[in-house]
């Protein structure tokens, strides 16, 4: 219990700082800060920040620690829908930009200047969203680890970290989930073949790896998955290859944008109107092509633990995705202020 008191004391100091930085970010991001969904997310962060400030500054007893765990568990659950809420904000932002550019298209001689100004704001928005989501992952890892440590021990786990995470087992589950989603939408799902180091295990957070692989397989679904590793390799690498026609070169940079999506407008509108209680981070009740967040969020999950995600594509043939996973324990948290 003494260890949990220490962890709770650390979170009591650390979480308000992190939440305050995110509130400041949400207040400053150009244009997007005015979107209704983004305003709601900001209020959510302010509420959590104030609740933490009102709690005892020093946690020294088991009763205080237990009360604190209830508080942060409520915050953790409340923030589980932020991903979809911010996706709504991005949708509203795209709609706002499109409407504004259409209305001013033939009304001003300074159209090119206005477009450059909007583009600059969108670049700033991309940087903000990258920073926001990386920091959000950090907050959820800290709270999730603390809450998991309070539960009865599970073999091979320390909190949310599994010491013997099996990429093969995780990918197999992701294939099943992606196949379910594909069958539900199209009536069938193509086969996915796995090869390589199927016996490999290493320390990682299984839920993060599942999210990454599900997003890649949803985009592929006619794929070959290769798991590569060696005792001298810097990373565990998972390659997902498909022959689905590839990505046009002009769209390759856009796939990392939170403001770009290939989803049908009706799907986007449906996601914007999704029921709050059903809109959680790692659910399978989402369309194959959602609101354009899958790849950039997956890259953030990789980068949080010192890895990365890259895409190479040949239009007319197919796409290769490379997931680089750093073994936990030898990287620093890459969270910006």
From TrEMBL:
It catalyses: L-seryl-[pyruvate dehydrogenase E1 alpha subunit] + ATP = O-phospho-L-seryl-[pyruvate dehydrogenase E1 alpha subunit] + ADP + H(+). One of its GO terms (cellular component) is mitochondrial matrix. Keywords: ATP-binding, Kinase, Mitochondrion, Nucleotide-binding, Transferase. One of its GO terms (molecular function) is ATP binding. Its main location: mitochondrion. It comes from the Eukaryota. InterPro entries: AK/P_DHK_N_sf, BCDHK/PDK_N, BCKD/PDK, HATPase_C_sf, HATPase_dom, His_kinase_dom, Sig_transdc_His_kin-like_C. GO terms for biological process: regulation of glucose metabolic process. It is found in: Mitochondrion matrix. Its EC number is 2.7.11.-. Residues 206-329 form the Histidine kinase domain. Belongs to the PDK/BCKDK protein kinase family. This is Protein-serine/threonine kinase. The lineage of its organism: Eukaryota, Sar, Stramenopiles, Ochrophyta, Bacillariophyta.
């Amino acid at each position: 219990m003494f260890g949990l008191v220490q962890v709770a004391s650390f979170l009591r100091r650390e979480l308000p700082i992190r939440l305050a930085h995110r509130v400041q970010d949400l207040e400053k991001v150009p244009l997007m800060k005015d979107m209704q969904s983004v305003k709601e997310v900001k209020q959510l962060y302010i509420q959590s920040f104030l609740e933490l400030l009102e709690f005892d500054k020093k946690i020294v007893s088991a009763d205080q620690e237990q009360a604190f765990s209830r508080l942060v568990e409520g915050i953790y659950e409340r923030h589980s829908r932020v991903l979809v809420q911010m996706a709504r904000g991005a949708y509203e932002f795209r709609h706002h930009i499109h409407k504004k550019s259409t209305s001013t298209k033939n009304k001003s001689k300074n159209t090119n200047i206005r477009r450059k100004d909007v583009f600059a704001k969108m670049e700033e928005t991309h940087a903000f969203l990258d920073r926001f989501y990386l920091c959000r992952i950090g907050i959820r890892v800290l709270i999730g680890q603390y809450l998991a440590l309070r539960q009865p021990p599970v073999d091979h786990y320390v909190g949310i970290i599994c010491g013997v995470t099996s990429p093969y087992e995780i990918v197999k589950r992701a294939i099943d989930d992606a196949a379910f989603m594909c069958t539900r939408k199209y009536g069938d799902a193509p086969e996915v073949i796995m090869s390589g180091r199927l016996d490999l295990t290493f320390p990682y957070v299984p839920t993060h790896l599942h999210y990454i692989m599900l997003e890649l397989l949803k985009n592929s679904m006619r794929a070959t998955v290769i798991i590569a590793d060696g005792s001298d390799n810097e990373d565990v690498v998972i390659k997902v290859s498909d022959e689905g026609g590839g990505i046009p070169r002009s769209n390759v940079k856009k796939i990392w944008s939170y403001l770009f999506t290939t989803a049908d407008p009706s799907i986007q509108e449906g996601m914007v109107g999704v029921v709050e209680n059903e809109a959680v981070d790692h659910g399978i009740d989402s369309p194959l092509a959602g609101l354009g967040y899958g790849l950039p969020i997956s890259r953030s999950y990789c980068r949080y633990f010192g890895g990365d995600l890259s895409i190479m594509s040949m239009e007319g043939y197919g796409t290769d995705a490379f997931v680089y996973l750093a073994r936990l324990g030898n990287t620093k948290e890459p969270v910006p202020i």
